[in-house]
Write a structure and sequence with these properties.
The protein is built from 10 helices and 8 strands. The protein has 363 residues and is of the alpha/beta class. The protein has one domain: Vaccinia Virus protein VP39 (Rossmann fold, 3-Layer(aba) Sandwich), CATH 3.40.50.150. The N terminus is likely disordered. Bound molecules: S-adenosylmethionine (SAM). The site of S-adenosylmethionine has 21 residues, from α3, α4 and β3. Keywords: Methyltransferase, Transferase. It comes from Hypoxylon rubiginosum.
């Protein structure tokens, strides 16, 4: 095994947000399930990358994968990818699209099958999904609101062709001046744009302008830094030495945040833009199926699946930017990370990431 790269020194975290928002959340307590004797015995010895022994995912991946595709096939969804957009850190190919759809799936489970939290009205006419990705949220919301016109925008034309008649997609860079008319949309939805936006105030101000008075804007973001509440992520963990520093360093190098929650960027943007009735809902999404609560355990199976499905796609460009394209050790580091992610539960490691929803009404 090659040496792991030395963790780059991380820039200091910015100040915690002091949101003016009403905080709502009904997440079950995130605590680990007791380990079975078998799991405890299947301790990781670091010697076999592909062994099923100690591999938490080996038995569950197939059923998870087939069930999500069964669901998606029933809904008639297909995907295609066109070209890679060089301004954004993940590819836009099939592999990455799969991970985006798995992400949509676990976020939907997290919200108890709801697509959003904002208390929008039933007779919405126009909905905008900014940075729509595969368009999966826009399609689902189009199904739920057949009388609304739903527009999904993205840098990349990766959305399916066969979609509900009230859903359409456009290529648009959300960090540029929006060309939409003011007071235009009943609901503007933005999700998982971390790493894509350098000026969150400007983005949210544009959403405010284009939202109808009385309409709602909702932002959902994830901090990619992994934490544990029980100190089970150790100093020598690949999460500590590679994963977490990678995103801190990348944020600093690009001037684009991957820690939108920690920096309170959603809250600040909503406050500055002038929204009222601002609410925030915070969740801890477990990485791996280690949680005692069955719903959180299921979510954890999907989060780790989304990651392992395309670790390359998530980390290749960040590695090149942070460590340099020709710096050796990338493949070995990734193999090590993959092994760690596949054995979190059996090794008693309990990481999670934070997800925050902020939504507010335009007066
Ligand atoms: C992690 S994906 C999330 C997709 C979708 N919002 C979801 O939650 O399923 C981020 C998406 O943002 C898009 N994106 C990145 N930068 C963008 C920009 N400047 N303007 C519009 N879309 C952008 C990417 O192409 C990608 O499809």
């Amino acid at each position: 095994m090659a040496d792991q790269p030395t963790a780059p020194s991380a820039p200091g975290p910015s100040t915690s947000p002091q949101p003016a928002a009403t905080v709502v959340s009904n997440q079950p307590q995130l605590v680990p399930a007791p380990q079975t004797e078998e799991e405890a015995e299947d301790d990781f010895d670091g010697s076999d990358a592909d062994s099923a022994l100690g591999d938490d995912l080996a038995s569950s991946t197939n059923s998870i994968t087939s069930s999500i595709y069964e669901y998606r096939t029933i809904r008639g969804r297909t995907y295609h990818s066109e070209k890679h957009d060089s301004q954004y850190f993940t590819p836009n190919d099939e592999q990455q699209m799969q991970s985006q759809d798995i992400t949509h799936h676990y976020l939907t489970i997290m919200l108890d099958d709801k697509l959003f939290l904002a208390p929008v009205k039933d007779d919405m006419e126009k909905i905008l999904d900014v940075g729509t990705g595969t368009g999966i949220w826009a399609i689902d919301v189009g199904d739920q609101f057949p009388n609304a016109e739903v527009t999904g925008t993205d840098l990349s034309p990766t959305q399916p062709v066969w979609v509900p008649p009230n859903v359409r997609f456009e290529i648009d860079d959300c960090t540029k001046e929006w060309t939409w008319a003011s007071d235009n949309f009943d609901f503007i939805h933005m999700r998982y744009l971390f790493g894509a936006v350098s000026d969150w105030d400007a983005l949210i101000a544009q959403a405010y302008r284009c939202c109808k008075p009385g309409g709602w804007v909702q932002s959902c973001e994830c901090d990619v830094i992994m934490s544990s509440d029980d100190d089970t992520i150790k100093e020598d963990s690949i999460i500590t030495t590679f994963w977490n520093p990678l995103w801190r360093e990348l944020s600093s190098k690009l001037g684009i945040s991957f820690m939108v929650i920690q920096e309170g960027l959603q809250n600040k943007g909503f406050e500055k833009a002038g929204f009222v009735d601002v609410h925030e809902a915070n969740y801890k999404i477990p990485i791996g199926g280690w949680a005692r609560d069955p719903k959180l355990a299921e979510i954890g199976e999907y989060t780790v699946l989304a990651m392992i499905n395309d670790l390359d796609g998530y980390t290749m460009v960040p590695w090149n930017i942070v460590h340099g394209e020709n710096t050796p050790g990338y493949r070995e580091t990734l193999a090590f990370l993959r092994r760690e992610l596949r054995t979190l539960k059996s090794r008693g490691i309990h990481p999670y990431m934070k997800v925050r929803y902020v939504y507010g009404r335009k007066p």
